[in-house]
Structure formats: structure tokens, C-alpha cells
Amino acid sequence: MTDAPETAASEAIPAPVPLLDPRDGIPPVTADPQALADVVAAFAAGTGPVAVDAERASGYRYGQRAYLVQLRRAGAGTALIDPVACPDLSALGDALADTEWVLHAATQDLPCLDEIGMRPAKLFDTELAGRLAGFARVGLGAMVENVLGFALEKGHSAVDWSTRPLPEPWLRYAALDVELLVDLRDALEEELRAQGKLEWALQEFAAIAAAPPPAPRTDPWRRTSGMHKIRRRRQLGVVRELWNLRDRIARERDVSPGRVLTDAAIVAAALAMPPNAHALAALPGFGNRMSRRQLESWQKAVDHARGLPERELPQPGPAPSGPPPPRAWADKDPAAAARLAAARTAVTELAERLGLPQENLVSPDTVRRVCWEPPRPATAEAVALRLAERGARAWQIELVSEVVAKALTAAESGA
């Protein structure tokens, strides 16, 4: 007996075509002023949108700077630029000022591009477009495969891009990352137009392009993984001292802070409060590979925190700027919990009907804030004003305000 044939639907889906080499070959890396000037001239003379990508050395180097910038534009081909050798790309940014930039997950790359003088006035984010169009998988490889039918090799995404010289396989991978971005953009634009969502996407892209660079975090040491285990202020002081020392060392060495000392080690030291370097060495993360001098430096940070007067110790946490965690609402304000449950259900159902993720329809934090302190009365107009105050775009307000208003009213009336 032969096996049953596959369904017609599965037979109709062709296998993706492996994309192994850039169509124009791997371009040389631009690493000197004259080569950069040639790239600027070529891309200024190109036509249509420009595909842009950047590679960082996350997990290897301090910070999130770009170590390679890739571009592709019709009439100009592909360029690979070394921003270490060419740290100022503002001339290139100026040359492309009136051009639409095509990026995948734009908010990840825009900060490091901004640092070297490149900031788009207009962009198209293929990842966000995929989310709005309802694709379940929106990574670049999945999108290229599902939309264009090509398979990208993604084996070098997490390598140390600060390596010099960059190996040829890495450069091939980098060039391929922008090879089909404009084609993907064009296909997604047609899909969004067919679904009636193109205007939504354009508003989202405009908001990303207009957003200012992210502000530095207040008390970044509070984001240490495992902080939930810390209960006492003096232990918080140890976390702060060790975190700041680690950050200073990592910055000086230009290495990822986690390679200097792990978050787990910082938390372990804060919980144990070791009295000396010998006791510190027995804790996880401070093992045999650490030199005596290093151990003494970390121990001095612990001792400094131990000796701080009470008034200089950090408070348990920053003052809350919004509503409490939703899990606490039922105890703190049952009526608010009912409003949130109703609004969440209504928004989720609307998002499912529209075929897009709920968080892209409206920010969950915005919904929580509106439910915690709702307008009185909760009319669609009043809810729309609250959504606008929280930065919601016009398309979101138009779709969500009446739905949320009805949910609030129903919850208040006990319907």
C-alpha cells in the first residue's frame, strides 16, 4: 500500500530557493574617506528606496554601536561600510535625507545609526509591516521565505562583528541581509494595501521616524537580572556598587559587562554580603579563574556598600509612575479590575478580527492606564483624548476608542 498523497495545499507551496550569493557579488568594505565619498556619490545618484541594516557586537563589546553598515539601492548596488574606520556617516545620511529607508525592526538599528550621523526622515519597517499584515513569523528570514520564496542563511547573526578583518562568509551574510529588503518592502506594501491597512502602517512608520533617540535610563543598575530576590536596602546598595564598578571596567575594556561579571554573581554577592575576599571567592561567578586583585576590587565595592550610612542607601524602588501591576488590581480596586478585564477582552477580539497582534492595535500599558483612571463619563470622545495623550496614532484611536468606551461602560454597569 502506498502512502496517501499530500494535500493539494501543501503541494502548491514550493520549497524556498536558497539565496547563497549577492547578485552583484560581495562588495569591498568601505574603510577610508575616498571610498566613502564614492559610496555617498553613488547612493545619492541612485533611485527608489534604500535598504539599510547595521550589525552590532552585542554580548562582546560595551554598548550597542554599529560595527558594519549595509546599504543597497537601485542604481548604486550594495555597500558595506566599516563605521570604525569611517565613524562619521553624516554625509551619507544627508545624501539620503529625502529617500525612504527600508529597515527590518527599525527601532533596533536606529539608535546605533543615529550615533554615526544617519537618521531617516521617512522609513518602511518590514518587520512591523509583517505584524500589521498578520504574519505569524516576522523575522527577516521567515518574511523573505514566506513572502518572496527565498531562504536566507542566518548563521552569522550573533557573531562578534567587531572582528577585523571581517571574514568573507560574514560579509556575504551581511550583503544578503539587504539584498531583498526593497523587494520585501514592495510586496508587503501591496499586501497591506489589499488588507486596507497601508495607512495604518504609514502612520506607524512616521511615528518611528519622528521619535527622539531613547533617553538614558535612570538607575540602570535596577535592571540587574534577579533583582526580585533582593529585599533589603543594604543589599540594594551592594548591587548598585558592584554594577557601577562592573560598568566602569567594561567601558574601559570595551567589553560586554556580562563578560566582566554576570548579573547572577552580583545578586549572589548582594544576598551573601561576604565579609572578605575569601568568602567572596566561594560564591558563584567569583571562582578560581578570577585573580586575587580582581576579587579585592569586588570586595571593596561590597565593603563600601556595607559602610554606607542609612540615608545614602538606595530606596527599594523608584516611585511608581502609573497603575499597580494588574495582578494586584482585584485587591486594590475591584471595579478597576473589572474594567481592565472587559477592555482587554474587547481589544483582543477586535485585534483578532483585524488580523494583527493586540499590542500593535493599542499599547497594553495605555489600556491599563485608561482603565485605572477612566474618563467620566467614559464616552468614545473622552477615551479618544486619553489615547491621544498616551501617543496613540490616529488609526488606533479611530478603531479602539469606541470599543474601549463600551467596555468601560459595561463594566461599570455590571453588564
From TrEMBL:
PROSITE patterns named among the record's database cross-references: HRDC
Pfam families: DNA_pol_A_exo1, DNA_pol_A_exoN, HRDC
GO BP, one annotated term: nucleobase-containing compound metabolic process
Annotated stretches, region: Disordered: 309-333
Ranges for domain HRDC: 232-312
InterPro entries according to UniProt: 3'-5'_exonuclease_dom (IPR002562), Exo_C (IPR041605), HRDC-like_sf (IPR010997), HRDC_dom (IPR002121), HRDC_dom_sf (IPR044876), RNase_D-like (IPR051086), RNaseH-like_sf (IPR012337), RNaseH_sf (IPR036397)
GO molecular function list: 3'-5' exonuclease activity; nucleic acid binding; nucleotide binding
Entries under SUPFAM superfamilies matching the protein: HRDC-like, Ribonuclease H-like
Top-rank taxon, per record: Bacteria
Biased composition (Pro residues): 315-327
Protein name: Ribonuclease
Annotated source species: Streptantibioticus cattleyicolor (strain ATCC 35852 / DSM 46488 / JCM 4925 / NBRC 14057 / NRRL 8057) (Streptomyces cattleya)
